[in-house]
Design brief:
316 residues, 74% helix, mainly alpha, single chain
Length: 316
């Protein structure tokens, strides 16, 4: 995937020389950080053969609720020293609660994950818009404290806080999947849930944990997005859902479960971010950018389906 990214940059270089510059590299890295957090969370769910369509709405809902706590424009904790810490806790609790509710519905009621999370997505999107209308006369909640905005815009020794957060999450996710019993259980459930159950794996609990981890990562992405925008908005991340799933699939995470690594996801997010930036530098319209990215993601999904079919035939 890294070679493919380099090849894409070389092909684009004669037409958009700016793509090979430090400024463009920094912009790509900063743009991919929240997407990487979301893709890591989605990877946990994809590995257990599920999908979470509610992560962007989770971001939006947690964004406006947390913003309502700390905004200087009539926030519940406006001017209070605890405003930012309490808001950060609110972000995380909402992410964890939504993830737990999604996982519980999938396990207890045997509902397809796409249906459960699609309903959650619709509900949370509506709730975020309704909640915003209660606290602001505009379409978003602004005037957030500088102590919060620094998370998305500040850094230490030239290293952005958001980048440090992503590196910690990526390392922790890699460790969890490759070095722990829970990681082995996640792959086992994704490969064959019946065999995993017979082998003593608590299948239901593992699936719920996968959704909880996805909600947690969505909350972290919401913190990065909201602090960078300096406003809580009910349409936060509205257009990145396909990018999240696409980046994971492009990175080699299987839509059929049981396969995926965090290092692959990082490369998938990098490739998709570079493609997006390159198309923007060419001056193409947003509709063409969406069409090209959709084509790339569709191609990756087809390759994944063919690869899974071949593996099934070989195993048979």
């Amino acid at each position: 995937m890294l070679l493919l990214t380099a090849l894409y940059v070389l092909c684009l270089w004669p037409f958009a020389p700016e793509i090979v510059s430090v400024q463009t590299a920094l912009e790509v890295v900063m743009a991919m950080l929240p997407l990487l957090l979301l893709a890591i969370g989605q990877t946990f769910v994809l590995i257990v053969a599920g999908i979470d369509l509610s992560i962007t709405s989770t971001m939006a809902f947690s964004s406006v609720v947390a913003a309502s706590l700390m905004t200087g424009d009539g926030g519940y904790l406006a001017g209070n020293a605890l405003a930012v810490p309490v808001a950060l806790v609110a972000f995380l609790l909402i992410g964890l609660a939504v993830g737990y509710a999604n996982g519980l519905c999938v396990v207890r009621f045997g509902m397809p994950s796409f249906m459960v999370t699609l309903v959650a997505q619709t509900f949370l999107s509506g709730a975020a818009i309704w909640f915003t209308s209660l606290h602001s006369t505009s379409v978003s909640i602004g005037d957030l404290p500088a102590a919060f905005s620094v998370i998305g815009r500040g850094g230490v020794a030239g290293i952005p806080y958001a980048l440090m957060l992503c590196l910690v999450v990526a390392f922790a996710a890699h460790w969890l999947l490759s070095r722990t019993t829970l990681g082995r259980w996640l792959y086992a459930v994704g490969n064959n849930p019946r065999a995993a159950t017979v082998s003593g794996v608590p299948t239901g609990r593992v699936i719920i944990i996968a959704f909880v981890l996805a909600g947690f990562c969505a909350a972290l992405a919401s913190i990065v997005y909201t602090s960078r925008l300096e406003t809580g908005t009910p349409v936060l991340g509205q257009r990145v859902l396909l990018d999240v799933i696409g980046a994971a699939v492009i990175g080699g995470v299987s839509l059929f479960g049981g396969r995926g690594k965090i290092s692959w996801v990082i490369l998938g997010v990098l490739f998709l971010s570079v493609v997006d930036k390159g198309l923007q530098l060419l001056g193409l319209s947003q509709s063409i950018v969406f069409a090209v990215k959709g084509g790339v993601i569709l191609l990756a999904a087809i390759i994944d389906a063919l690869r899974s079919r071949i593996l099934v035939r070989v195993a048979a």
